[in-house]
């Protein structure tokens, strides 16, 4: 496995793991509850975060599944799809992070009577915040890494297959080996670019 392909697999797997943790803690926050004045807030935002975490898990799993398909013509295999997806994932996680800061001070008030549950409420909320922040930072970093690597490719970002990033980081011997094995990915990209250009010309004539 090429180094950058392995890196993508590891990063995507970590993103999926963090999204699962985000879902678990988002579920625990409203289930465990908190102080009475925060019950409604925790219920609404907890289940909102849980729903979004499920969508994040599904989408990351889809991107992971299309992470190594050099002959695929699906839009899910394109570099641009992966970049934009992680930008959106980062924005969603950041949007979930800030509302959960509101009840943090109240939930972590250990001086208030709570039958000893304040520590658990506080821990669940803090862990949810950590997961949101981690996912936001990791997704943004992944998008930036893929984008910066894609700048070294001769193919436009919107047409490039995600596996073409592996050639940018490949050693000369690996690149030569891939060249001998045939340029399936390049031929796919060339067909895509030609088809796109042909479609644009036809629309212009109309």
Commentary on this structure:
It is a single chain. With 206 residues, the protein is mostly helical. It is elongated, with a radius of gyration of 22 Å. 73% of the residues lie in helices and 0% in strands. It starts with a helix and ends with a helix. The longest helix is centred in the middle third of the chain and has 33 residues, at 118-150. It has one domain (3-201). α1 (3-32) runs antiparallel to α2 and α1 runs antiparallel to α5 (118-150).
Key features?
single chain, 206 residues, mainly alpha, 8 helices, 73% helix, 0% strand, transmembrane, transmembrane helix
List the helices and strands and how they pair.
Blueprint: H1 3-32, H2 39-65, H3 79-97, H4 104-107, H5 118-150, H6 165-169, H7 172-181, H8 184-205
Helix pairs in contact: 1-2, 1-5, 2-3, 3-5
Q: Spell the H/E element sequence.
A: HHHHHHHH
Structural class estimated from helices and strands: mainly alpha
Domain tally: 1
* Structure summary, number of beta strands: 0
Span between termini: 47 Å
Low-confidence stretches: 171-198
Region (Disordered): 171-206
Keywords: Membrane, Transmembrane, Transmembrane helix
Transmembrane segments: 12-35, 41-66, 86-104, 116-147
Biased composition (Polar residues): 184-193
